[in-house]
Design brief:
Number of helices of chain A: 13
Low-confidence stretches of chain A: 7-16
Bound molecules: fe (ii) ion
CATH architecture of chain A: Up-down Bundle
CATH topology of chain A: Ferritin
Strand order of the largest sheet of chain A: 1-2
CATH superfamily of chain A: Ferritin, core subunit, four-helix bundle
Oligomer: heterodimer
Number of helices of chain B: 2
Strand order of the largest sheet of chain B: 2-1-3
Order of helices and strands of chain A: HHHHHHHHHHEEHHH
Structural class of chain A: mainly alpha
Number of domains of chain B: 1
Shape of chain A: globular
CATH architecture of chain B: Roll
Largest sheet of chain B: 3 strands, antiparallel
Distance between the termini of chain A: 31 Å
Chain lengths: 335, 98
């Protein structure tokens, strides 16, 4: 047995075996005691499958999420902004890689996950199917999209599956820079010329509602949530997190001198929260179903990058094999 | 699309020493063609913000781990030996520096 990464084949073609009765009860005990499940512990097949689905979708989102921002690296308004944006996009690649390897500890193979994404069979967050027509969109993504991601991800640092929680801790540490740099871009524009201010406002208008939808459908339409909460993967419901996010945004928007595009947004003293308007879930579903502005383009781009990189991956393997053979030969010669 | 069936880059476990005087700690894992590339990738992936002063990479297949099934036989014997802890000894209570 090899540490946390059991070889993917060890589980056999039928996948990991169902846990024994004693395994199930020890799993239940760990979950009840708010402990962590580690890779080689016995766990219900459903738990494993649902984690693989969630973690790989999350990884795909990070990887596809590089594209809307990568689109602006060559056109960033200054060298300073360009360096920051490159660092941010590089972080997102890193997030994808942390998460893929967390999924691998559950027996998923990297190659399978990659192929599912390239074949357009895997899901990723639909927020990345929106375009980034102006520089202000980069600010709005950092502030709103990374902001929503942080809201979602902070509780995942306590997810019951150890490798996922550890990946999330690393990710959350890096995300706060992402949100702050986005906020700073918007603030600079908002305090700039009237045209720049307008650019910032329009970007916020574009990204506000989609960012609220990042928390997923309303609790009533989110059948998997209850299970995920019972397993302590998820700690708060979609609607709870969305409310928390809106409550945080309002004072931040004021600091930016920008408005949030929702006429129903107002403080509710009784609830101690902001009320906000109904979201257009039909749009969300359409984008999820592949009718977003960029769905085809995003997967197409990833596929092209993968295909064009094939020779590099092959050459590296050939080089490694040659080096290993040479080492073996000289070791034999020395003996 | 995937072209010729290339072997997947093997998996490596990454251990990072966060600072001088501290042990290497498992940071995560990554894929790389060989050890040299694994070190380079580990640097890019796990130490972008000065998280470490030294990196180890180990092929995941070279890690040998105790099995969770043997947890009881391996670790339980330690549980019934309280006399290995200083708190077991109470006769010295009140005596200075002991
Ligand atoms: Fe990220
Ligand atoms: Fe981010």
């Amino acid at each position: 047995m090899h540490g946390d990464h059991a070889p993917a084949t060890s589980a056999g073609p039928a996948g990991p075996a169902e846990p024994s009765a004693s395994g199930q009860s020890s799993f239940d005990r760990v979950i009840a005691g708010d402990g962590r499940i580690e890779p080689r512990d016995e766990m219900p097949d459903d738990y494993r499958k649902s984690l693989i689905r969630q973690i790989s979708q999350h990884a795909h989102s990070e990887i596809i999420g590089m594209q809307p921002e990568g689109n602006w690296i060559t056109r960033a308004p200054s060298l300073h902004r360009k360096a920051i944006l490159m660092a941010k996009v590089q972080d997102e690649a890193g997030h994808g890689l942390y998460l893929y390897s967390a999924a691998e500890t559950l027996g998923a193979s990297r190659e399978d996950m990659m192929q599912a994404l390239l074949a357009g069979k895997a899901r990723y967050s639909s927020i990345f199917n929106y375009p980034t027509p102006t520089w202000a969109d980069i600010g709005a993504i950092g502030w709103l999209v990374d902001g929503a991601a942080i809201c979602n991800q902070v509780p995942l640092c306590r997810a019951s599956y150890g490798p996922y929680a550890r990946a999330m801790i690393r990710i959350c540490k890096e995300e706060s820079f992402h949100q702050r740099q986005g906020f700073e871009i918007l603030l600079t524009l908002s305090r700039g010329t009237p045209a720049q201010h307008e650019l910032a406002q329009e970007a916020v208008n574009r990204w506000y509602a989609p960012s609220l939808m990042m928390f997923g459908p309303p609790d009533a339409d989110s059948p998997n949530s209850a299970k995920s909460m019972a397993w302590k993967i998820k700690r708060f419901s979609n609607d709870e997190l969305r409310q928390r996010f809106v409550d945080m945004l309002v004072p931040q928007a004021q600091a930016l001198g920008l408005t949030l595009p929702d006429p129903d947004l107002r403080w509710n003293a009784e609830r101690g929260h902001y009320d906000f308007g109904e979201l257009d879930w039909s749009e969300f579903k359409a984008v999820l179903a592949g009718q977003g502005q960029c769905n085809v383009q995003r997967v197409e781009h990833r596929r092209r990058a993968h295909t064009e990189g094939a020779w590099v991956r092959e050459a590296a393997m050939a080089h490694a094999a040659k080096k290993a053979a040479r080492q073996q030969q000289s070791a034999r010669g020395a003996a | 699309m995937s072209g010729s069936p290339t072997a997947e880059w093997p998996l490596w476990e990454v251990f990072v020493r966060p600072g001088r005087g501290l042990s290497h700690v498992h940071a995560g894992s990554l894929h790389a063609a060989d050890a040299e590339m694994a070190l380079g990738n580990a640097r890019d992936l796990y130490t972008r913000r000065g998280e470490g002063v030294s990196i180890w990479v180990v092929a995941s297949t070279d890690i040998h781990a105790s099995s969770p099934d043997e947890k009881d036989s391996l670790f339980d014997p330690a549980a019934d030996k309280p006399y290995r802890h200083p708190t077991f000894y109470t006769a010295s209570e009140g005596v200075p520096n002991l």
